[in-house]
Amino acid sequence: MSNLHLKSVEELAPLLESKQLSPVELTKEILEFAHQSQEAINSYIDFYDDEAIKAAEKAEAEIANGDYKGMYHGIPLALKDNLYFKDKVTTMASKIHKDFTSDADATVVEKLREAGVIFTGKLSMHEYAWGITNNNPHYGPVRNPWDTTKMPGGSSGGSGAAVAAGASVASLGTDTAGSIRIPSSACGIVGLKPTHGRVSKFGCFPLAWTLDHIGPMTKTVKDAAAMLEIISGFDHRDPTCVDRPIDQYVNYLTGDVKDLVIGVNEDYFFKQVDHDVENAVRKAIDLLVSQGAKVEVVKIPSLQYAEWAELVTSLSEASAIHHSNLKTRPEDFGNDIRLLFELGELPSAVDYLQAQQVRRQLKAEFAEAFKKVDVLIAPTLPVVANDIGDDTVDLNGEKVDLINNIIRFTGPSNLTGLPALTVPCGFKGKLPIGLQIIGPAFKEGKVLNVGYAVEQCNLMEGKKPEILLANR
């Protein structure tokens, strides 16, 4: 094998466009490595080898005839298995839907096909996207490529692990309380949750209707920006989709942060954080300041209620979706998510509506903060990845509950619908740390540029995951 699986889309695209690299050659290598690494990281649920080679041959012919469609043309990638492919099984990594097939592609799948993407298969996830460990009772745990004894984060853990390892050049995740950003942070890659309504969710099995998002999970910020250009846009089939023009997000990536005003919320986003995580994030902020950015402390009082509002909203909406199956076949759910669905039957209508009032107030306070600052920067997670199967995590020498802590900093962006990007910014030991950038609604370009500036600081120092080093 060559090392094509180590490369990002932005590195591979010029080789494909100039015909120095064949989409067939690239697809064969990605598939070979995906199969080879499957036992170690278990990122795939299904492989589409034959279809992928045929699609690669088609892409090769198109490029040879001068019909180059853009940066993702001829790029092989796999998607999370809650995104529908026409006439293909989409399992939601569950027992109940293990044979479910759709009669249409998801909108994001349609758009990627039109852009010339080659699909190599479907990636594992936490069952029904309702968890953050990706320790799946039906398909086995996905393992973190940096340390295969550790979880990759979830629910898009297959996407995070596959992209980090090189088993997929890029991917999509879904995010209801952090399910793009949690695995992206844990696996040392870039993950973007766009503004709610920016990307159509048609053809994505829902977890919680008002909190769900779809977004890129990639090796670099430019890869994420280019993918967002492809998948964005209005779709009448998704009632939450917003009709806004699509930006040329790649054009925002200048790395210029002179006069950028960075908001820092000490009371919530830097409270109860692992010391190494906090130091890495603050170091990155200092580097941006050295390039001309400024820091302003901001207050967002309603954040103190965000975890409760996120929990009541997600539990209630998720349990409504699964109510019938919970009554008739509860034993077919994994133990962890069955408990969550049962808990979701408990909040009252009053609880749910009060949570929406918190949500409205939180949106207003974030909007007020963005009158003074351009973006907010915070840790993506207060901790790094923990051991597979352990429901607690070490936080500065104290064992704390994993799920309650790991979504603390990601959930507010789902409640507000604001765009949030995680980029790698260093390590605790050999495990990656993520920095989160939150921006105003539909200002993904600004958020991506700040992420690009962090990326240019080379805080990862070119280090590669354990699984890549073992397979060289």
Automatic annotation (TrEMBL):
It comes from the Bacteria. Residues 25-448 form the Amidase domain. The keyword Isomerase does not apply. One of its GO terms (molecular function) is transferase activity. Keywords: Transferase. InterPro entries: Amidase, Amidase_CS, Amidase_dom, AS_sf. It holds the Pfam family Amidase. PANTHER family: GLUTAMYL-TRNA(GLN) AMIDOTRANSFERASE SUBUNIT A, MITOCHONDRIAL, TRANSAMIDASE. Belongs to the amidase family. This is Glutamyl-tRNA amidotransferase. It comes from Lysinibacillus odysseyi 34hs-1 = NBRC 100172.
